[in-house]
Design a protein that fits this description.
The complex is a heterodimer of chains A (111) and B (115). Chain A has 111 residues and is mostly beta strands. Helices cover 0% and strands 51% of the residues of chain A. Classes of the chains: A mainly beta (111), B mainly beta (115). At the A-B interface, strand 3, strand 4 and strand 9 of A face strand 4, strand 5, strand 9 and strand 10 of B.
Chain lengths: 111, 115
């Protein structure tokens, strides 16, 4: 199964460049946010998370930025590689542990 | 591999039929979630179970039902199927299902095609 049929915004980057994927979330009461990566034929895979009491968190080659004032989340991928090509979803957690997903962005990496 | 197992991977059926999707959570996880991913609506939360009990309900149709068994595996039952039910159905699991920072781990999904 794959999400390639979704009419998603697409970000196309050159291999080696940095990628920035943006997400606007809807609920100011959300206190936990996750970025997931979905490759063709696979389920969403956890990349990085951030709590609402933080504004930045770094992982391996990835950084998540949270701006609560404008309810905006971004995922930065350093030195983007062909294996980073996938659909990226942001998700916010509201009361009752219901994880709500954004619409997704397709990242295409050109060799 | 997330540790969450879903079967079958693909399911083709006709309108009006009933199907059952199965999910085995990661070892040790007590909570199971079902999501639907369709072309026009992205990932939609359907329902959550924790240790056999329903904990949260999302946009799940009355024609759909789920349960979690004592061994913690879960089944999603879809009945009176319509063309619009064609979608990818994902199961996810988490350790407790109530923690603020709990990550969900997803299976590879079941692709349902209703013809």
């Amino acid at each position: 199964g794959e999400s390639v049929g979704l009419h998603l915004p697409t970000l196309s980057v050159q291999e080696g460049d940095n990628s920035i994927i943006n997400c606007a979330y809807s609920n100011s009461a959300s206190d936990y946010f996750i970025w997931y990566k979905q490759e063709s034929g696979k389920g969403p895979q956890f990349i990085i998370d951030i709590r609402s009491n933080m504004d930045k968190r770094q992982g391996q080659r990835v950084t998540v930025l949270l701006n609560k004032t404008v309810k905006h989340l971004s995922l930065q991928i350093a030195a983007t590689q062909p294996g980073d090509s996938a659909v990226y979803f942001c998700a916010e957690k509201r009361a009752g542990n219901m994880l709500t997903f954004g619409g997704g962005t397709r990242l295409m990496v050109k060799p | 591999d997330s540790g969450v197992t879903q079967t079958p991977k693909h399911l083709i059926t006709a309108t009006g039929q009933r199907v059952t999707l199965r999910c085995s959570p990661r070892s040790g996880d007590l909570s199971v979630y079902w999501y639907q991913q369709s072309l026009d609506q992205g990932l939609q939360f359907l329902i959550q179970y924790y240790n056999g009990e329903e904990r949260a309900k999302g946009n799940i149709l009355e024609r759909f039902s789920a349960q979690q068994f004592p061994d913690l595996h879960s089944e999603l039952n879809l009945s009176s199927l319509e063309l619009g039910d064609s979608a990818l159905y994902f199961c996810a699991s988490s350790p407790r299902g109530s923690g603020t920072n709990e990550k969900l781990f997803f299976g590879s999904g079941t692709q349902l095609s209703v013809l």
